[in-house]
Design goal:
Blueprint: H1 15-20, H2 26-34, E1 52-59, E2 68-74, E3 79-87, E4 90-102, H3 105-110, H4 124-132
Antiparallel strand pairs: 1-2, 2-3, 3-4
């Protein structure tokens, strides 16, 4: 598999304000507000919502049906593959997250579910990779803000 190269370093912006204003990533805001990542003893797996620099890719979910998937760039250069779910009442009732921390955005995408692992048949992994390669606008927002896109492999 060819490595995906990041074209630009992610730019700092207030992603929470962007989400709170009804942006396309408001689910990420409420997901992390109600499910803050646990802080394990290993520094290599520590992170918090304050560490998020940019949202690189997203596959949206649906309450009580489909998981949400995000690739997040952290301020220290690491990436998070975040998968989350919530019940029909939303993020503040029954919900949860799972995540992996890696050093490359393509590595994060490679950890996502394939169409056979995601019971809905969605192409989660392929969709995240397409966004990173700038081949799919699905889930992306304004290009002047989003700089996690990667060059073609």
């Amino acid at each position: 598999m060819n490595k995906i190269k990041i074209v630009n370093k992610p730019q700092l912006f207030d992603w929470r304000a962007f989400c709170e204003d009804g942006g396309v990533f408001d689910d990420l805001y409420y997901c992390l507000e109600n499910n803050p990542p646990e802080t394990p003893s290993s520094p290599s797996t520590n992170w918090s919502p304050d560490d998020v620099l940019a949202i690189c890719a997203e596959v949206p979910g649906a309450n009580d049906e489909l998981n949400w998937w995000w690739i997040l760039a952290l301020k220290d250069g690491r990436y998070v593959l975040l998968s989350a779910w919530c019940d029909y009442t939303g993020w503040n009732c029954r919900s949860g997250i799972e995540y992996n921390i890696v050093t490359d955005s393509a590595e994060a995408a490679a950890l996502a579910a394939t169409e056979r692992e995601d019971y809905s048949g969605r192409y989660v992994r392929a969709n995240l990779l397409a966004q990173l390669r700038n081949r799919s606008p699905y889930g992306l927002y304004d290009a002047s803000i989003h700089t996690c896109r990667s060059a073609s492999a």
